[in-house]
Amino acid sequence: MATPTKAASQPAYALTLDLTGRRVVVVGGGPVAARRARGLLDAGAAVEVVAPWLCEDLADLVGAGALTWHERDYVAGDLLQPEPAWLAHTATGDRATDDQVAREAQAARIWCVRADDAGASSAWTPAVARGRSGSPAEGLSVAVTAGGDPRRAVAVRDAVAAALDSGSLPVRRTRGAEPGRSVGRVALVGGGPGAEDLITVRGRALLAAADVVVADRLGPTGLLDRLGEDVEVVHVGKTPGHHPVPQERINELLVHHARLGRQVVRLKGGDPFVLGRGGEEALHCAAHGVPVEVVPGVTSAVSVPAAAGIPVTHRGVTASFVVASAHDGAGPAVQALRDAPADATLVLLMGVSRLAETAEALVAAGRRADTPVALVESGWTERQRTTVTTLERAAADADAAGVRAPAVVVVGDVVALRASLGDLAG
Ligand code: SAH
Fold it and tell me: Is any ligand 1 atom within 6 A of the Cβ of residue 350?
């Protein structure tokens, strides 16, 4: 019977097979046959190998009872006896044998993959990228063929696998919840200080799989524009002139969406557990039986000073730093410094509106009036700006420069390093 051949321009038909319990014959005992056999076994096939000898990998599989080995050369009828195979792979390294297997497969209407000659095959195995188990991309497979150029296919496959891991592909499920889960999940994702590439790979991947994103004003808000149109984005952060959504309402929102089976990302600026109320959100989810995870982020407390060329610790200057909120006044900062070494760097978040009061209280508590202070606004964004001053002049200089939130206030001798380092935000 003449074998029809496919024109190079004609696309092959892509298909996925359920091989569970189905007989597949692999002819050949070398490493290529071993790779094929492993893939087939992973897919649940009943694999039989026909070969006079086996490489170590295949011998291991036989030893483990994973497949059946016919210890001999291929003979006519192997594909049909004791029952017809669903699929054949031939990788003997001997053209005449591969030809024979392919011919007999053709006659019996059994699809046959040839390792030696893709052009003479009736079927091809693609290079497959799979979403890692436990990752947001779990359950996804991307098959790549490259018209008989396996290395090209593998290179693309590897790039796709990396993209599945990185969260740059839209891996969101649109049908049904994850297997075994009727309730969705909440991920408290630290987005970092604002630059889109300062979120972690895990955070980015979860964002790419989210059904609902509950977002703050700070952090990498630019990423929100790149979500699919059907992803629901709920803005809960303060914007000028608008009241923020109260924390209890945010907590309720997270639980509400998760209970509808959705993947919820709570995207926060910096790190979720650094003055971000992430702990409260985690507790609320846990109390309501909603699975919750945290993805740490690059906190502004350290990264925003860094962007302005200020290391929060520096050999010979100080080996410690304290972070405090100035939201409710100077109390926490004064208290934090009371037990800290005299040279400790003080990093204040939410420190702009009550700067005068805080600076005064720090001097009253024993810090030198001429202690260097840096006010770093909108770190890691195009609007980043740094004002260097001292504790006694901080409030006046901030007023004069029109310093606005969000800003990180750094107090301590490390600020002097900025004179040599300058901006380091890249
Ligand atoms: N969880 C966040 C902090 C939230 S409190 C974190 O780990 O970074 C909000 C405060 O963080 C702001 O008032 C400001 O002091 C600081 N902040 C956050 N992002 C900032 C940025 N890009 N530039 C300057 N300050 C920032």
Answer: yes
